[in-house]
Amino acid sequence: MSNSIRFFLIFILGFTAYYFFDAFFFKSIQAFSKNISHSKAVAHVTAYLITLIPLIITLKILLPKRNILDLFSLNKPIPKGFTLAFTGTLPMLIGYLIHFKVINKISFESLFINTLSSAFFEEIIFRAFLIGTLYRFTRIGFLSSALFGSLLFAQVHLYQSQNITELMEIFAITFLGSLFFAWVYFESEYNLWTPIFLHFLMNLYWEIFNVSENVSGNLYGNLYKLFSIIVVTALIIYFKRQNKVRFEITWKNLFIKTREVQS
Question: Which of 32, 181, 218, 236 has the most CB atoms lying inside 10 A of its own CB?
Fold first, then answer.
């Protein structure tokens, strides 16, 4: 068996184990933890940490010499990731301040779960593991690596509505959002903190302002989000050109990598 086939088999088996472990035990672990801690936030984090174990084991089998922070790209500068994310999402913050009211009642535990906790763990699962592992450690290109992870990322957000039109909008927005977060992750020197903070701040502004009941949004909600995406993209392109750093994602490695990229 070639190394490539072995890699993909272990990767698929590891993610499958995670998927079913999460599907069958996440809510039970969450409920058990809540009974002990009496905190929804603590229970949410605990359930994620425990259900991540199959992914951690998979990465250590695949790449035993690399530490887990490196494999999840959490060993990069946190301030650098936050600065880019905060600057890039200022159009959302300013626009929402102008067009929307702050919600009257805020549950801080729910806010934590829907913003920081969800953003952190979703970026680890989808961008760092499911997309990042394939792109960083195989010859598969950007779109080939990101397709399945982005489809799955979009699918897990479909609980937000029962309306067919809204479901299509939610699927399209979250699928494209996943591709964008993956691109940001790779182009920011594999610093996962950048998409984590982008994800967190976008969720935060959406939650604290009375924008929309789900991610499909409305005209101003999506318009200012689009402005932020443009600003983030422009900042990354500007700094890479200023520092004469080559782009990780090019037309030549959208499907199959024709050259080695930094991992």
Answer: 181
